[in-house]
Amino acid sequence: MTKFVYDFTEGNKNLKDLLGGKGANLSEMTNLGLPVPPGFTITTEACRHYLTEGELPGGLDTEIDAHLDALEEAMGKRLGQADDPLLISVRSGAKYSMPGMMDTVLNIGLNDQSVEGLTKQAGNERFAWDSYRRLIQMFGKTVLDVDGDLFEEALDELKHAKSTTNDLDLEAADFRALVETYKGIVREQTGRDFPSNPREQMDLAVKAVFDSWNSDRAILYRRQERIPTDLGTAVNICTMVFGNLGMDSGTGVAFTRDPASGHQGIYGDYLQNAQGEDVVAGIRNTVALADLEGIDKTSYDQLLTIMERLENHYRDLCDIEFTVERGKLWMLQTRVGKRTAGAAFRIAIQLVDQGMIELDEAVDRVTGDQLAQLMFPRFDDGADKKQIAKGMNASPGAAVGKVVFSSEAAVAAAARGEHVILVRRETTPDDLTGMIAAQGILTSRGGKTSHAAVVARGMGKTCVCGAEDIEVDVKGRVAQAGDVTVNEGDIISIDGTSGLVYLGEVPVSSSPVVQYFEGTLKAEDGDELVQAVHRIMTHADAAARLTVRANADNPEDSARARRFGATGIGLCRTEHMFLGERRQLIEDLILAESTAERIAALEALKPMQREDFHGILKEMDGQPVTVRLIDPPLHEFLPDFTELSVKVALAGDDADPKDRKLLECVHRLHEQNPMLGLRGVRLGLVIPGLFAMQVRAIAEAAADRVGEGGDPRPEIMIPLVGSIQELEHARDEALQVIADVAQETGVSVTTLIGTMIELPRAALTAGQIAEAADFFSFGTNDLTQTTWGFSRDDVEASFFSRYLDLGIFGVSPFETLDREGVGRLVRIAVEEGRKTRPGLKLGVCGEHGGDPDSVHFFHEVGLDYVSCSPFRVPVARLEAGRAAIETAGSDSR
Ligand code: PEP
Ligand code: MG
Asked: In the list 19, 125, 286, 316, which could disulfide-bond 23, CB 3.0-4.6 Å?
C-alpha cells in the first residue's frame, strides 16, 4: 500500500519529490539531531491524488490518525486538549520553494476551551488570545476564503481605538474582543461558525493547503519560474512552538552567507515577541540578526553553531527560519537558499576554494539564466545622478522607468510597452503581476527577507527594499523623498546592487562580465565575480561536448561572437544583406522580364555579396561559416501592397509605369500564408540563377581569402527543404558553380553543402535527405511553427497567454523546445540521418540554440553544435558544459 505520511524521523533531504523541500529538510535536520519541533509530512503524492481525483486518497485518514496519535503520545498532550492543548501548524512545502505562494495555518487546536488551557499553561493570557485570533484570521482567509482585509481592518480599528499602531500595545482583553469580532466575520461571510473541533480544523487546513497549489498566484509564480504544474505540494504538520510568548521569545530568519554578495557572515533578521510570518511580511521593523547576541546569547551561540553545521552538511548557502520560545531555540525550516546571480557564481567558487565542492559541481550550481543576468548593463559610474533615497540592495541590476504605485498600473503600462518601477510600501503575493510587469521594484519598508526582496531575487528582477527615507502614499499616488516629490509617471532609476534610488533617467554602462567576454577586461584584473565567471566558464568549456556557434550576418557580429567564445557561424541569414539600398536590386531582379535583365540584376548583386562573405570569412578565419541561401518570400523585398495601390490609384493616369509594374508584381506574388509559400529552396528552384549567384559569391570570396593567406571554411545551407529531390537540384547546381569557380581561380576550397531541417517532412525523411547532405542544421523556429501548425507572428499575441493560463504550454514552445513533439522529430532526424551517413554533422540554429533547457536536450540527442545570437553564446557555452557534466554524473551513478 502507498505510504502517504512520513514522520520527520523517517524522511531525508533527498526525498524532495515526495516530501517537498520543507518536509525533506525538516527530516534531515531531525536526523542531524537539531532541535526541530516534532511532526510529520503528508506527501505530494497525496496532493496529486486529491487534485486529480477531487478526494483524498483512501487510507490517508487512517495514516494521519496513527501519526497524530504518536505525536500526541510523544508530546504528552492531545490536539486541542482543553486543559493543556497540543497545537500544530499546517504548512505547505513543494519541491521547489515558492515563497509566500501557498498557504500556511498556525495555532490549529485552539477553541473557546483550549484557549483557557493555553492561558494557564503559558501563564500568559494575552499570548493565548493573540494566538487564537491569529488562528481564526489565517484559517478564515486561507481555508474559508474570507477576504483577509476584513480581519486586517478589524485589527486596525482596534488599534485605532486604542490610539496605537503597534500590536504590542494590545492587551489580552483586546484580543478576546477581537476573537469575537473575527468569529462574527466568519459567520457573516461563510454562513457557518468557525469550526471549534481541532481535528476538523486540521483536516480542512490540509485540504486548503492542497488547493492552494492551484491558486492564481501560485500558478503565475510557477509559470514565471518554469516550475512544472503537476508536482503538487506536501503538507507539514508540525508541533507549534511560540515566538510570541514575551520578550524572551521571538522569531527570525538567517542566511549562512549574504544571498546578495555571497560573503560569509551573520545575515538575517530577528523580531522579538512575534510569530511565524511576521518577519517575512515586513509588518514590524526587525533587528539585525547580530543583535540577537545581546538579547539572548545562549540561543545566538547555538544558532551560529547550527548554521555552520548546516552549511557544512549541505555544502551550500542555507537559509533558515527559527523561533526562540522562552530562551529555547527551535529550527522551523532550512533549505539551500535562493541567491542573486552574482552570489551564485561567487559562492560556487568560494566553496571550491574551501575544498567543499569540486569544479564540476560548481559549474552545475550556476545556470545560463544567471549568467545572462550578469551580462545586463549597470548604471554608469561617471554619470550625473540625483540620489533621492537609499534602501537595501535586495536584488541587483539597474532599472529605469516611470513610477507606478499599483500592480494594476504596472500591468497596464507594461501592456503599452512602457518601462515602469513598481513603488510600494511593501509588496504582498497579490503584487506578483505588477512585479512581473515592472522593470524594478522599490519598497519603503521590509528587509532583505521581505516579500519584495525574496520574490524579486527569485525572478532576477532589480529590487531596492526598505528605503525608509521615502514616504509612499499609494492612494494619493505620490511619494515623498525628503523635499523631492515623486508623482506617478515620473522617471526614477534604482540600483539593486547598491540600494540607491535616483530621480530621472541614469545612463547605464556595460557589465564587467561583458567586458571580460569582450576581452577589454582580463580575468586577473577583474573583481571576485569576474574571476569566478572565468573559472567556471573555463571548466565548462573543457567539459562540453557540444560546440557553440553564432547566428551572425555581418563582420561586426561575427567578431563579437568570436570574442564571446563562438567557434563558428551556424547561421548567416543572407536575406539580411538585401535590405536598405540593395532592396532596389532585388526589385530589379523580380521585375526582370528577360533573361538578360535578370542576369544583369544578379550580376549587380554578386560583388556586394562577395564582399559580405569575404568580411565574414575573414573574421571567422579557420572556423566554419554556414551561409544560408536566401529564404524569405520575395514580396518581403517589395513595397507594401496597400500603400502602392493607393499611390498608383491617386496618381491615376499619371502613375509611374514602374509603379504599375511593381503593383502587378506585388499582386502576383501576394500569398495568403507566406510562411508556407514560395520561399526557401522553392525560390531557389523557380528563380533561375539566384542561388547560383549566391554560391558563386561565396566561392569567390573563399578563393579571395585563400589568396590572402586565409583559411576560409564556408558551408552552404539550403533552407526549407522537404524532400531529397529539392536538395539534389540545389546541391547539383551549387556543386557545379563551386567547380567552375575552382577552375577559374585555380583555388579549390572545401565547401560542405547541407540543409536545414525545419519541416516535419524533412525530419521524417531525414534518412533519404542525408544522402545529399553533408550536414543538417535544425531550424527549430520553423520546425516549431510547422509541427504545431501555427505562425509565430500570428499566434503569440493572440492566444498564447490563454494557452499558458490553461497549462497547455508550461512555457512558449518558441522559447524552450517542445521535447515531446518537435523534439521527437529532431530525434528521428538525428537517428535516421546518421544511419544513412554516420559522420553527418548536426547542429541547430533556431532560437532554441541559446535556451538553457533546450541546450540540454540538444546535448542529449547527440548534436555536434548549437548556434545562437552572439550575446547568448556564453550562456550556451555554460549550459553545454553543464549538460555534459550532468550526463557524466548520471552515467557514473
Ligand atoms: C529556423 O527556422 O529555426 C531558422 C533558424 O530560420 P528562420 O528563423 O530564419 O526562419
Ligand atoms: Mg527557418
From this structure: 19
The confidence score (pLDDT) of residue 891 equals 65
Residue 156 clears pLDDT 70, i.e. is over it: yes
CA of 779 to the centre of ligand 1 (A): 5
Q: In the numeric block, which cell numbers belong to residue 336?
A: 539551500
Q: Is the pLDDT of residue 363 over 90?
A: yes
State yes or no: is 451 an active-site residue.
yes
* Orientation of helix 583-591 relative to helix 657-669, angle to 10°: 80
Helix (H) or strand (E) holding 159: helix 148-161
Question: Would you say the C-alpha torsion 771, 774, 780, 785 has a positive or negative sign?
Answer: negative
Among 241, 280, 276, 295, which residue's Cα sits nearest to residue 35? 241
pLDDT at 892 over 70: no
Q: Determine contact, residues 284/329, Cβ cutoff 8 Å.
A: no
Question: 584-596 in b/e burial notation, b at 16+ Cβ within 10 A?
Answer: ebbbbbbbbeeee
Residue 282 has what pLDDT? 56
Q: Please say whether the beta carbons of 638 and 584 come within 8 A.
A: no
Cα(first)–Cα(last) distance of the chain, in Å?
A: 29
Integer-rounded Cα radius of gyration of the chain: 32
Phi, psi of 683 (to 5 degrees): -65, -45
**All cell numbers assigned to 439:** 522593470
Q: According to the model, what pLDDT value does residue 755 have?
A: 98
- Separation of 295 CA from ligand 2 center, angstroms? 66
Mean pLDDT of the chain: 92
Q: Which residue has the cell 571550491?
A: 352
Residue 162 pLDDT more than 60? Answer: yes
How far, in Å, CA of 495 to CA of 457, rounded? 14
Residue 617: partners with Cβ closer than 8 Å, 6 or more residues away: 625, 701, 702, 705, 710, 712, 713, 714
Q: Which residues line ligand 1 (CB under 6 A)?
A: 571, 573, 631, 758, 779-782, 845-846
- 485-535 pLDDT per residue, tens: 999 999 999 999 889 999 999 998 878 999 999 999 999 999 999 999 999
Q: Is 311 in a helix, a strand, or coil?
A: helix
DSSP string, 196-241: --HHHHHHHHHHHHHHHTTSHHHHHHHHHHT--TT--EEEEEEE--
Whether the full predicted model's pTM is greater than 0.85, yes or no, is: no
Please give the number of the atom of ligand 1 that sits closest to the Cα of 845: 5
Distances (CA, A) of 524 to 520, 717, 797: 12, 41, 46
d(CA 661, CA 680): 25
What would the pLDDT profile of 692-726 be if each residue is shown by its tens digit?
Answer: 999 999 999 999 999 999 999 999 999 999 999 99
For residues 311-326, give the mean pLDDT.
Answer: 95
Give residue 615's identity as a one-letter amino acid code. Answer: G
Nearest to 585 by CA among 632, 645, 634: 634
pLDDT, position 510: 76
The residue whose grid cell reads 517532412 is 761
Name the closest-CA residue to atom 1, ligand 1. Answer: 779
